[in-house]
Amino acid sequence: MWEKESRTMLRKIALATLVGTLLLVSSLALPAPVAAQQTGPWVDEIIFSVIPQEQAVASVSAGDTDIYVFPLETPTDKVAARDDPNIDTYEAVTGLKDMWVNPVPFDPTATDKINPFVVREAREALNYAIDREHIIAEILGGFGLPYVAHHFRNQPDYARDAGFFAKLEAKYSYDPSKAKAQMESALATVPGVTIEDG
User: Fold this and answer.
1) What are phi and psi of 171, to 5 degrees?
2) Is position 79 within any domain?
């Protein structure tokens, strides 16, 4: 009987200790969360404006606009922004200029309408006919990268297999003689197709 009373007493003491501990912890004063440290001026307002692209460089340079977040399209604007001491520029890949070819087969009943690009080798020959480096230098003002495969040099996935992509770029580099020969060979079997003046 003494054991039973002893166990009951121990349970009461344990329960009282637990309740007392919980009350003590809940009554402690915890510090309030620390606010984030201000590291610069607070922004009172943000004003969004529509600025024609041809005015963007001058507006940022004059201080009328703080940020212009859209890509500059013309080489003249890109060079002006890059060379302006009042403007900080950040170069990034912002677009893609590519050429799509329709590979849909021609209608065999319409003898006057032939799609030469239904032939895979004819589509491939276009890769040799396009001087990507010339387009980048002369049309894009040096602002661009050649694009041969589904990834190009500035993309992270290119680095995963850079050797493969470098070989692909070398394989499809500008070669007008190869383009002409392959196009002629590919289309020689297509009835009604003649190549005139190269």
Assistant:
1) -60, -40
2) yes
